[in-house]
Structures are given as structure tokens and as C-alpha cells.
Specification:
Length: 154
Amino acid sequence: YQQNLERIFSCFADKPATPNGFALLDGDQALPVANPENPQAYIAFLQLGCRETENLYLTDEVLALLGFDWQAAKTKITGAAHLYPTKQAQLAAAEAWDRKTVDLKGLIEPIAAILDAKNLPWTTRVSYAIGHAKPTGQLAEFLGHGLLQALWPQ
């Protein structure tokens, strides 16, 4: 999508001093380097400071919105792991998770179901935490410096 947007914008707009938008990559993906074959004049790539967007759900700031700290969240996840037989072993291992680097693909829906009494989508909780005010603390760390600077320039 980034390359298509670059081509479209280059057809009708002069090269901007700063990008018009950003393509967000998970932290476990390589950040492309801008070059003539892969320009980033209009749409620049940014990379999360954590493995993937799902990891943002387990930050202290998002967990606080749900009424948890990490210790309480781990206890609740491991205690409810048996409700998800195909993911039980992975959920039961929550005590050992490094929240910044654990692979949560396939686990985020059960985690959200376990932790969120209102049953809101995990993306809604993360979006609220990011959009409510400039992120600080662990949420800012997981988002990464580049993303924070792009959205909240100093």
C-alpha cells in the first residue's frame, strides 16, 4: 500500500518537506530503507517499539483502563486458560511472558475476553489509551520514539 500511495501522491503533488502519512510496521519486521526504488517522500515507514500491535494491549496504561496491573492480569489470564483448550498451554504461560516481545497473534482475542468485562475489542482499548493523551510510560516505550515523534512532534 505504501508504494501505491507514493506513486499516487507523486502524480499530483510536489515532494513535501515532511511525509503526508506513515506506514506502521510491527517491531519484528525489518524497517525498509528509503531509496530510489523504495521512496518514502510521501508515506514514510515507522516501526513499533514492541513485537506487534497486540503487545500494546498488555502495557501498564491499557491494563489500568481495564482495572488491572500486570500481576493481576497474569493471574486472571492463567486462571482462565482452561476455558480455551486449544490455546490453554500458551495462555497458562502468561507468567513467563515478556510483554514487549511475546507473540500474541492468535491469543489476543481470548486475552481481551478474559480481561475486559465490557467485552470491547482490544483495538478500542488500545486506541483510547493512545488517543486520550500523549502516551507516556510503558505505552510510549512500546509505541517507540519514531511513532511518538511523528504523532506528537515536539
